[in-house]
Amino acid sequence: ETTGFAHTADLSERGLLRAAEAASAVARRSKGRAGPVAAADLPPGPPPGSGGDADTRGTADEGDARHQPTSKEASLEILRRADEAARSTSDGIAQVQAGCGSSRRRIVVANSDGLLAGDDQWRTRFSVSCVAVGDTGLQTGFESAARTVGAELFEEVSVEELAERAARRALAKLAARPAPSGELPVVLAGGSGGILFHEACGHGLEADHIVKDASVYVGRVGEQVASPLVTLVDDGTVGTEWGTYAIDDEGRPAQRNVLIDKGILTDYLWDFLRARREGRGSSGNGRRESYQHLPMVRMTNTFLLAGEEDPDEIVAQTPRGVYVAKLGGGQVNTTTGDFVFGTSEAYLIEDGKITEPLRDANLIGNGPEVLRRVDAVATDFGMTPGTCGKDGQSVPVGCGQATLRLTGITIGGTAAA
Questions:
Q1: Quick one: 192 and 140 in the same domain?
Q2: Which of 118, 152, 175 is the last residue of a domain?
Q3: DSSP 269
Q4: Looking at residues 323-335, what average pLDDT do you find?
């Protein structure tokens, strides 16, 4: 079975038929999944959204009543406050860069099976980056907040607190010592490590990797793949988190999908195309960057459920290890699960106490193995927003977890463990 895809901004009957013909032609001559074809030579049609009886799950007027974008004046004031808060932290803060903005995405999905659905999606984001200067050189710190709301985001979060946190992160790294090397227990702070499970585990549970036999989780539904303390969920319906929506880009309702339940692999993530081939329903995870992109299986808000332990006790019960307050970027091989992640903020744990800040503390491991090494999970659940890239497409996602401990993971530092 092959897939042909074409896109057009011409919503006239002629324009839509031409796009359908182009997609059909691509499918006929392609032996595999084809890239997009633009019907750019078609005459302009009516603007998107003109007419129609789609279930928009919140009409344009209702959307205006619920949310408002950040005005230019309000945005300037937000940025000024962030700048002042960061610089007031220390004279060592040499540069502050902040940004904020709102977007609105109104979609209508119609298909030849008779589906007609829509969504009105608002998103607002704030981010701040600080550069600190000291005897050891330059260091940076970053913080952000993002939700599926309008300007009311700034009634829910403190830009001053975020800016001060970014500044303190940069300043702490100035005094950081080289990270130890070797295998050590690692404690991930609440909300700090969700990206590790998103990248090292979540992508391997996406059905497109599964059907291509390109995942370590192929054929393992029903098996114990993680510690009994691990319940991994992907949920596109969580409040106003960054990966939340009413319907996916194939018109299927977002839903809560339990992928690993107390260590047992229960299911994968599905888009409509692959679910139909397997004779099952979509899990509401068919997403695309825009109408010019082919839908594919993507995560939404992916997180580990909280446990019952006190986060301070988890640290106190760790004689020596690394405390990660914020993870950085990383690389993952979805076929093997192997990964390397940097840290944006990390500290040494000595005698059950968080002590010196560390630099160049890279985490090196394997996704399935990490899941098995979770031996403590706390109650302080937290989420962080992010942008997930896959096959040239970027979509907003959320990642989260409570403070947890991994019994051992390789630290790629430069000092002796």
A1: no
A2: 175
A3: B
A4: 91
* C-alpha torsion sign, points 201, 206, 207, 212: negative
- Average pLDDT (236-246) is 98
Q: Are residues 146 and 278 in the same domain?
A: no
Measured between its terminal Cα atoms, the distance across the chain in Å is 53
pLDDT of the residue at 70: 87
Residue 274 and residue 283 in contact, taking contact as beta carbons nearer than 8 Å? no
The Cα–Cα gap between 397 and 298 comes to 9
> Do 199 and 314 belong to one domain?
yes
- pLDDT for res 33: 47
pLDDT at 331: 86
Number of domains making up the chain: 3
What share of the chain has pLDDT > 90, as a percent? 84
The pTM of this model reads 0.90
For 107, the domain range is 65-175
CA-CA-CA-CA dihedral for 181, 381, 158, 132, to nearest 10: 0
- Average pLDDT, stretch 395-412? 97
Please report whether residue 60 resides in a domain.
no
* 52-64 burial: b if 16+ Cβ within 10 Å, else e: eebbbebeeeebe
**pLDDT score recorded for residue 37:** 53
Cα–Cα nearest to 57, from 147, 122, 112, 9: 122
Write out pLDDT tens, residues 143-187.
Answer: 999 999 999 999 999 999 999 999 999 999 999 999 999 999 999
Compute the CA torsion angle 223, 225, 227, 233 (nearest 10 deg). Answer: -100
Q: What is the DSSP string of 121-182?
A: EEEEEEEEEEEEEETTEEEEEEEEEEESSSTTHHHHS-HHHHHHHHHHHHHHHHTPEEPEEE
Better-scored residue on pLDDT, 65 or 251? 251
- Residue 100: inside a domain, yes or no? yes
> pLDDT > 70: what percent of the chain?
90
Contacts with 178 (C-beta within 8 Å, 6 or more apart), sequence order: 358, 359, 360, 413, 414, 415
Tokens (6 digits) for 228: 């009994």
At 237 the three-state DSSP class reads coil
Residue 95 to residue 91: CA distance in whole angstroms: 10
Kindly state whether residues 95 and 185 are assigned to the same domain: no
